[in-house]
Amino acid sequence: MIREKDKQLLSHIYRGKKIARRYMVTNGFDGTLTMLGMMTGFYVSGTKELGVAINACLGAAVALFVSGFSSAYLSEKAERQEELRKLEQALLIDLEDSHYGDASRYLPLLIASVNGLSPLSLSLIIVAPLFLAHHGILLPWSPFLVAIAVALICIFLLGVYLGKISRQFWLWAGLRTVFIALILVATILMFDI
Amino acid sequence: MTTTRKIVLDVLKPHKPNGVDFATALAQLSPDYHVRLSVVEMDAKTESVIVVVEGNNIAFDSVSELIKKMGASIHSIDEVEVHGSETI
Known about the structure:
- The complex is a heterodimer of chains A (193) and B (88).
- With 193 residues, chain A is mainly alpha-helical.
- Chain A has one domain (1-191).
- Helix content of chain A is 83%, strand content 0%.
- By secondary structure, chain B is an alpha+beta fold.
- A four-stranded antiparallel beta sheet of chain B has the order 2-3-1-4.
- In chain B, a hairpin with a 3-residue loop joins strand 2 (34-42) and strand 3.
- The longest helix of chain B is centred in the C-terminal third of the chain and has 10 residues, at 60-69.
- The chains are: A mainly alpha (193), B alpha+beta (88).
C-alpha cells in the first residue's frame, strides 16, 4: 500500500511521466536507427567477424546509454532547480525538505534512467541475433539480416506506440516509422563502396 | 490535560497539490479529523487558503509538518479551540 506522503511525491513525479515517455520514444528511436545503420553497414561490407561487430555495437549501445543518461539528467536537473527556485521565491520558503524538493532530486534521475536505458535495451535486443550466431546457434539467414529484421520490428513497435499515444491508426503509425527506417537503409546502400 | 478541537490556519500553498489532495492528506492524519479548505486568493504560482481542522485531539505539530512537506507555509493561526479537562 502506498503511503499518503509517497502519493504526494508521486503526484509531483507523475508530471514527469509524459517527459519520460517522450524521451523513451525519441532516444529509443535514436538507438534503434543507430543499430539498424550499423547492421546494414556490416552486412553490405561483408563483415564475417561477428566478434568485432558485436563489440562495435556494444560500444555504440553503451555510448548511447551514457549520452542519454547524462544529457537528460543535466538538463532535467537544471529545469527542476529553476522551477523549484521560482516556487521558493513565490512562497518565500525553503522547499528542499518538501515533496517538491524530493521530486526535484528524484525526477531527473528517473527521466535520465528512461532516456539512457531505452536505447541501451533496444540496442541489446537488436544485437541479440549476432550473439546467438556467435555462440553457434544457427539462424535462418545471415545474423546481420536477422538483426536488421529485428530492428525493423522494434521501429514498427515504436511507431505503433506513438500511434497509440496520439490516437492514430496503429498500422499506419507503425508503417510510417518503418518507412523512415527503410529510407535510412536505402541511403546506406547508396553509399556502399 | 488539554485537547485541541479546532484550528483555523491561514496557509500559502502552491497550486499543486490542489485543494482536494491537500485537504485529503491532512484529513488522513487521523480518522477523526474533519478538514475544510477555502481559497481566499489566487496568484500565478500560489494560492492563499484558509484551512479548518477539527477533531477530538489535533496534533498541531503533525499538521504543520505535513503542510510544510506539501510545499506550503502557515502564515498565521487565526483561530484555536482548546478544551481543558478537570484535574483532581
